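Slide 14.
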Amino acid sequence: MVTISVIGCGRIGRMHLRNIAGCGGARLGPICDPYAADIEGLARDYGVAAVESAEAIFLDSSVDAILVASATETHAAYIEAGVKAGKAVFCEKPIDLDLERVDACAAAIAGLGGVVQLGFNRRFDPGHRAAFEALRGGEVGALHQVVITSRDPEMPPRSYVESAGGLLRDMTIHDFDLARFFLGEEPEEVFAVGNALIDPELGEELGDFDTAMILLRCADGKQCCINNSRTAVYGYDQRVELLGERGMLVSGNRRAHEMRRFGGAETERGEPYLYFFIERYGEAFVAELEAFVGCVRDGARPEVGFEDGRRALVLAEAAYRSIKEGRLVRVDEIS
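Slide 15: predicted structure.
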């Protein structure tokens, strides 16, 4: 059994607590969140200890791994401390909002070994994974285009937007990772446009966007189009299209069930899409945890590791530069 402690017990941290408790190959260790008023009650519910500081977890010899679900600005420091303490680390995205801090973290853990996995859960979604396997199996021949649609059901609270680090580092970073996953090589050029169409006043005040489209191009000409919106009134819209020389693969949206209603006034009326990321990607969160546990147990390299997190952030920075300067940006200008 792999003992995993969770640092950060907010919304996503609590989901990870449930998943660890339900994972056959893992058990929950001490948990920590100095900002959660109910941390003691939460610990009692899971039959574990609540500690006041992350340092106590790093020093605990019974803990094999830590899962970092705390605020973004703490991620790099916890990765460094965890690796130096000999713990495997699973960290939610992003590593940090600043590329220099990410590079400093990489330098700090270089040569120390151990397992570091990033929380790019969408790679583990059953539909996305099936499309990936079909693509690699040659079902559509040579890949020409990837189209990723990612739209949230509603604008997040102002407090979240203020601290998230920008649409492309917060939301689109998942899509940058998916793009690299499906393309099978590194994009070399980026062109992006971004606007505040949903809340123009907030966008102008914070200098951020709520609507964006990004084009990526690889050295061999393969293309990827990512389109994002902070609000889709019809629900959480998560789709992937892979167009190849012999056909197309699609991983579509998810509903509670697929029953449709047909009547005189309308046809094919169905259930709404699963509401948001915890519901839509529930199976993916479980699968990424199981993959992490397997890596810790076997000493294997994670499928999605530290460098994947860095490269996704590099693409985000290239996209921001493209929007700012109104031009196509080569990725090597950033990295």
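Speaker note: The chain has a mean pLDDT of 96.
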